[in-house]
Amino acid sequence: MTTLPPARHLELTHFTPVTDKTIEEVISGLSSCTCCLDELPTRFLKSVLTSLLPQLVQLVNISFETGAFPKALKTAVIKPLLKKSSLDPKVLNNYRPISNLPFLGKVLEKVIYQQLTYFLLSNNVFDTFQSGFRPHHSTETALIKVTNDIRMNTNAGKVSVLVLLDLSAAFDTVDHGILLHRLENWVGISGTALNWFKSYLEDRTYFVEIGNCVSDKISMTCGVPQGSILGPLLFNLYMLPLGQLINSNNVSYHNYADDTQIYVSLTAGEHGPVDTLCHCIEQISLWMQNNFLQLNSDKTEIIVFGPQTQRQSVISHLESLALKPKNQVRNLGVIMDSDLNLNSHIKAITSSAFYHLKNIAKIRGIVSKPDLERLIHAFVSSRLDYCNGLLTGLSKRAVRQLQNIQNAAARVLTRTRKYDHISPVLRSLHWLPVTQRIEFKTALLASLFMV
């Protein structure tokens, strides 16, 4: 199928010159990490920012006026990062190529990011069902949308089939010519603004640094830098036609950056929607090939939800099409099972959180209380809070397992004895109990999307 860009009545022809205040706010908001290519350490630059501010503002505005990204800022230092600690470090495919970029380049990218995002939001350019790298969107909003649709279908007595599509090295294979075409024809960028993006993408180089070993410089002829500020946003715009293609097949979908999930619902004995889903996957695969993206069929997963008595006939039909559904899958960090009760997910949270809490307890004698609390929030509370909006409506028994983790964390932090009442301790720490944290998250998300 051929996808067509939507009609755009407004264009972004140039970027707005910045003021001292804008650059000061941008620099203050960026991390103080220094790239080995920086002439000045970032912390030092921030400490003398008042003296350098006029020159930095001039640099940014000249870049905007000329539509040129400084060549000196186009080199990236690639430091391979193991995707998961459990993976074999000897297998190169287990690493993610994270770019460490010059600080001034990040300043330029951040200003462009702000102005481009404002334009995209003002003109409704974002795909409605793209939750990656958008204000007020996250993995949680993506999962809530999908799980809510599935639950509604289940309540109506329908079966849902969910397919999780996996892309291989998606950010690294983005074709620059196609990306510029998307920016011009799908987004509405032209003139000096489009020239700026051309300059940003062309003549980029990188070298790999591992310990004391450094490779030669290599030209970057495709892809957007992982670790850059603009990279994820540009990738979202690169993927804009995909939603149109999926919609044309009457298949539901939701994206989070390069993670795409598509799903259909059907009644007992109905096979048409499954056949449509398979046809849609074929079209997606072809679209990916034409756009220099690779669909990883080995990591693509399928799961069937709905009344247990009706699932088997759908599973049998999928198997006849050489598709093998699973009983549970990991979707954006959340373990989803066919009954959608999230028991496996809660069990995984419990196991991981108690493991980290046990290790934290071992060092509490040599760590200050404020630092101990930071460790607990980083390794324990973060696990309780991740996508906890999905836990709304679950049984008290399921949520109690998570409350036991929080109680144990509070006892470790305050040295409260096992049989002492924990509620006063939680109040003294200003920690909302797990149920109330879930309710607060739900209310917060609802407030963000209220018209």
TrEMBL record:
Domain Reverse transcriptase: 62-336
PROSITE patterns tied to this protein: RT_POL (PS50878)
InterPro entries referenced in this protein's UniProt entry, alphabetically: DNA/RNA_pol_sf, RT_dom
Pfam family, one: RVT_1
Name of the protein this chain belongs to: Reverse transcriptase domain-containing protein
Organism, scientific name: Neogobius melanostomus (round goby)
